[in-house]
User: Which sequence fits this backbone?
């Protein structure tokens, strides 16, 4: 679902979040409302996260995309308060995380947050099942109950039969499945994934992305997903935030990013992305209701229906979610999109 | 036109040569100028720290108290706490359980039979790795029984069993504290630095004074000696836990305690076991030294034999220590590896899951019950022991009768052309010049802070009236370090460049390092009798390992790109070594030199046993007289020398690293 079509309430929102490294960064930030890059340099500070404000809606896959050193990892750690932000506000379900006491924070993390790590972060001395049970063990959940829940999620991620193995006996993809299972065992509302597939081989990565999407289709978590791979971002995201030098440059749906990049930097990323993979039928649709044949859905991506449209001599009708015909799309437009993208590939 | 750096190097070299010349003729010069104070620190200026420290210690032990609790109560409490488990382990392994005192003593339960102990270590070996290890440790313990060292070895083992858990556990807790609280690190880090540079003898005397002569004192000294590396390794291990694991732990909502004990400690357990292994080795290293303040067992046997120059008996007991050390070392290493490889749980009854434990338990009961009828089951029969003492004595006699001239010639050659000239220079350098030079060096290497440190510490040595003895120390250490470096660095380079040589050299060094330091002394004393030359050889053997290790590591870790760049430019193998490998390895080599000096200094009191006249001897005398002040001052003087050398070399190594762009 595109967040633009309706307005669900924000699950996690942050405003004016800063993370500065260096001496007396807090006083520095208090004295200046919004210092620029030069101000920071003069004060000898490093701005890992600079003035970031985001609203992440319930049930949304929100991808934070940036190259290494752009501050995306620091930002997600500020959102989960693994790192103490220098300034700003982080609201989770309306609770200010930065004001939460240690006890409250532990409770929130135990029950409402889950996190998956780039290098899996599995405990080497525990078996698959024990690793998955670990978050429950920490909460002193009864052994029988914990084991039952753990077995369920292990099965959910397709590792049934591997419960007794140790992390070092598994492949990278399998290890990350354990990481995913472990982060889901407490049934969190908010799911952080910090470059979960970056350490995997390309083929495995694609497979894991597909499974991630089908998992999400079942679970409907609110997801904050970090990646440095724009293709991955486009494939998975409802909305993408692009970061550079600690700042968020643009927050938009993949479609808007590709069609209307805010800066040259964003345009540089999107240039290599085939338009057909990002654009939806709605984006190319003409308002005339003249199409014939089986209608295509407005929310479909062009690449998924292109074959179908090109094969038809006549324009095809376009239907919205309710099945109402709202316009038509013809093969000339589609072919244009396909070839334009082929040129830059 | 020379660059600034070249000119400075030239200046330093000229200064060194000038100093050597002044030192060599120092005595004559002083006579000529009629200024004996130049080479002998005037006794009128000496501040008698030792008297004051002795008085302070006396006050501490006799009068100091906070409210109703006196200092002695505290030491007695600690002693009692350590004594209880020690008595238990001693009874189990060596003495048996006895009720009543003196003539009315009734043995209740004999000590664990040699058969059971040997079976237990074999089972442990098999559990930790395989039958090969089991055979090795089994052979080691059988050796102890067959060669008549069993009783002493068990007394030693009893103290190891107590010292290691306290040292490792205490080290772990302190390390965790330093990791979790910045304050902890700020407090512990300088103490650890100091502990690493202070030779253990410096605190032997105060411990003796506080806890009295006996096994508890020995245990306290051992624990103090063996704990610091564990603290360091713990902090290091916890710091090197993958930050993602740390984040993970916090994200699942662990409390601080859970984070430490369920996430951090288990995931760094393998590194932590390296620390435990270190504690074990250091504990065994202390066995002989600890016997100076009351530990019994093998260490005492060696010490006693050494004192009456009974080479055979000393060698036998020394080998027994080595054998024990090898067994314990290999077992603990295998155990460390084992921790990383957890097996799937085996199902079945308790007995079938714990076959080895059951076997040992049954054997223990059997020997205890049947031992009433057949003492063979409890104690290895004395008539069946083999003694090698006579053989060693005869060997030494044979060598001395037949090769006396050759050995003597070697000794005299080294004395005349190597040791004595260095000694003359060291004793001849006017002390004001030495202090100034040291400060200058400190300033060059690390700025005014280091200069002040050098000035202060060397000044203190002079003022304490120990200048001459300190110089003898520097001479003995210096000569040994030079020799160790000359031998060690080429060996290290060879080990790095040639795989076959590397294997052989590593084996040699590993063996040297497993041997407790005292053991080196025995064969050397056999051949060369007492004196400086003997001391030097023992020190060189002891201090060789780091020189080799660091050189090999340095040469090996030179980046491949640089080597290839050299090869492409057409360097010969020799040029590669000379222009690329050695210069790039220099920082590592300097650190190795640093370690070599530290080890050499820590050997000093041991060599005092063979009649050197340096600070080590001063400590040794203080030890026999229980003169706290004297022992502490001499010990601190050694520590000061160590600190000066350590800081200068570390600064030098850092400068080299900065020059090569390896550090900013």
Assistant:
């Amino acid at each position: 679902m595109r967040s633009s079509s309706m307005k669900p309430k924000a699950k996690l929102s942050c405003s004016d979040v800063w993370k500065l490294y260096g001496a007396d960064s807090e006083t520095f930030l208090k004295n200046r409302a919004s210092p620029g890059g030069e101000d920071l340099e003069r004060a000898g500070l490093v701005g890992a996260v600079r003035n970031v404000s985001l609203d992440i809606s319930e049930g949304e896959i929100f991808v934070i995309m940036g190259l290494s050193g752009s501050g995306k990892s620091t930002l997600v750690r500020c959102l989960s308060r693994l790192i103490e932000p220098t300034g700003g506000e982080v609201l989770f379900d309306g609770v200010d995380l930065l004001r939460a006491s240690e006890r409250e924070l532990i409770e929130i993390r135990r029950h409402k947050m889950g996190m998956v790590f780039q290098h899996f972060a599995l405990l080497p001395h525990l078996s698959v099942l024990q690793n998955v049970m670990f978050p429950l063990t920490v909460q002193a959940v009864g052994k029988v109950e914990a084991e039952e829940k753990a077995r369920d999620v292990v099965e959910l991620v397709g590792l049934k039969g591997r419960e007794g193995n140790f992390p070092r006996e598994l492949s990278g993809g399998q290890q990350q499945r354990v990481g995913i299972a472990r982060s889901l065992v407490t049934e969190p509302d908010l799911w952080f994934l910090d470059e979960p597939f970056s350490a995997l081989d390309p083929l495995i990565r694609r497979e894991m992305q597909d499974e991630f999407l089908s998992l999400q289709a079942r679970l409907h978590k609110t997801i904050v997903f970090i990646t440095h791979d724009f293709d991955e971002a486009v494939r998975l995201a409802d909305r993408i935030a692009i970061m550079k030098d600690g700042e968020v440059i643009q927050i938009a749906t993949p479609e808007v990013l590709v069609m209307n990049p805010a800066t040259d930097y964003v345009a540089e990323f999107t240039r290599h992305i085939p338009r057909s993979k990002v654009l939806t039928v709605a984006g190319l649709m003409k308002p005339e209701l003249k199409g014939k044949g089986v209608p295509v859905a407005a929310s479909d991506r062009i690449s998924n229906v292109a074959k179908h449209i090109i094969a038809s001599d006549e324009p095809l009708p376009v239907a919205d979610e309710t099945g109402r015909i709202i316009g038509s799309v013809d093969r000339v437009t589609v072919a244009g999109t396909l070839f334009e993208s082929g040129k830059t590939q | 036109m020379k660059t600034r750096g070249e000119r400075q190097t030239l200046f330093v070299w000229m200064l060194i040569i000038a100093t050597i010349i002044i030192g060599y003729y120092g005595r004559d010069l002083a006579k000529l100028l009629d200024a004996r104070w130049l080479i002998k620190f005037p006794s009128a200026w000496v501040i008698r720290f030792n008297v004051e420290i002795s008085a302070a210690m006396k006050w501490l032990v006799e009068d100091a108290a906070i409210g109703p609790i006196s200092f002695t109560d505290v030491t007695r409490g600690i002693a009692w706490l350590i004594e209880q488990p020690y008595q238990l382990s001693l009874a189990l392994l060596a003495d048996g359980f006895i009720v009543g005192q003196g003539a009315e003593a009734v043995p209740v339960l004999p000590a664990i039979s040699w058969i059971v102990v040997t079976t237990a270590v074999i089972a442990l070996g098999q559990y930790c790795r395989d039958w090969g290890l089991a055979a090795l440790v089994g052979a080691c313990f059988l050796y102890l029984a067959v060669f008549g060292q069993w009783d002493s070895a068990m007394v030693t083992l009893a103290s190891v069993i107590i010292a290691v858990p306290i040292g490792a556990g205490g080290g772990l807790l302190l390390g965790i504290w330093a990791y979790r609280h910045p304050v902890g690190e700020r407090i512990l880090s300088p103490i650890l630095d100091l502990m690493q540079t202070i030779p253990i003898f410096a605190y032997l005397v105060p411990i003796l004074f506080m806890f009295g002569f006996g096994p508890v004192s020995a245990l306290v000294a051992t624990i103090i000696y063996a704990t610091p590396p564990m603290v360091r390794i713990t902090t290091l291990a916890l710091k090197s836990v993958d930050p993602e694991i740390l984040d993970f732990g916090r994200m699942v909502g662990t409390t601080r305690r859970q984070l430490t004990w369920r996430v951090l400690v288990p995931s760094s357990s393998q590194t932590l076991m390296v620390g435990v292994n270190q504690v074990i080795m250091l504990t065994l290293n202390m066995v002989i030294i600890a016997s100076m303040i009351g530990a019994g067992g093998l260490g005492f046997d060696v010490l006693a034999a050494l004192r009456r120059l009974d080479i055979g008996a000393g060698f036998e007991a020394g080998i027994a220590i080595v054998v024990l050390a090898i067994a314990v070392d290999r077992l603990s290493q295998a155990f460390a590896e084992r921790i990383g490889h957890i097996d799937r749980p085996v199902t079945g009854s308790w007995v079938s899951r714990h076959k080895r434990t059951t076997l040992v338990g049954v054997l223990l009961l059997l020997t205890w019950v049947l031992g009433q009828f057949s003492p063979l089951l409890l104690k290895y029969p004395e008539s069946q022991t083999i003694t090698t003492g006579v053989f060693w004595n005869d060997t030494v006699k044979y060598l001395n009768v037949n090769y006396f001239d050759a050995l003597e010639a070697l000794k005299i050659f080294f004395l005349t052309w190597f040791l004595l000239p260095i000694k003359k220079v060291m004793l001849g350098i006017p002390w004001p010049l030495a202090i100034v030079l040291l400060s200058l060096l400190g300033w060059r290497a690390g700025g005014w802070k280091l200069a002040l440190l050098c000035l202060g510490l060397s000044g203190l040595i002079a003022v304490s009236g120990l200048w001459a003895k300190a110089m003898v120390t520097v001479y003995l250490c210096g000569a040994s370090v030079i020799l160790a470096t000359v031998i060690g660095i080429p060996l290290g380079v060879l080990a790095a460049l040639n795989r076959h040589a590397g294997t052989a050299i590593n084996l040699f060094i590993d063996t040297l390092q497993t041997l407790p330091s005292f053991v080196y002394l025995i064969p050397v004393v056999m051949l060369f009798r007492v004196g400086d030359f003997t001391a030097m050889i023992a020190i060189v053997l002891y201090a060789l390992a780091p020189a080799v290790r660091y050189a090999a590591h340095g040469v090996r870790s030179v980046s491949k790109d640089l080597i290839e760049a050299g090869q492409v430019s057409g360097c010969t193998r020799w040029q590669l070594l000379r222009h690329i490998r050695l210069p790039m390895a220099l920082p590592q080599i300097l650190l190795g030199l640093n370690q070599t000096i530290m080890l050499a200094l820590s050997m000093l009191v041991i060599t005092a046993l063979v009649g050197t006249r340096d600070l080590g001897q001063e400590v040794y005398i203080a030890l026999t007289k229980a003169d706290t002040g004297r022992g502490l001052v001499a010990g601190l003087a050694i520590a000061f020398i160590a600190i000066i050398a350590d800081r200068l070399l570390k600064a030098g190594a850092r400068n080299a690293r900065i020059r090569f762009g390896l550090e900013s």
Summary: Chain A is about 40% helix and 20% strand. The two ends of chain A are 28 Å apart (CA to CA). The first strand of chain A starts at residue 10 and ends at 21. The interface with chain B takes residues 77, 80, 82, 105-111, 113-115, 117-121, 123-127, 134-135, 137-139, 164, 166, 186, 192 of chain A (CB under 8 Å).
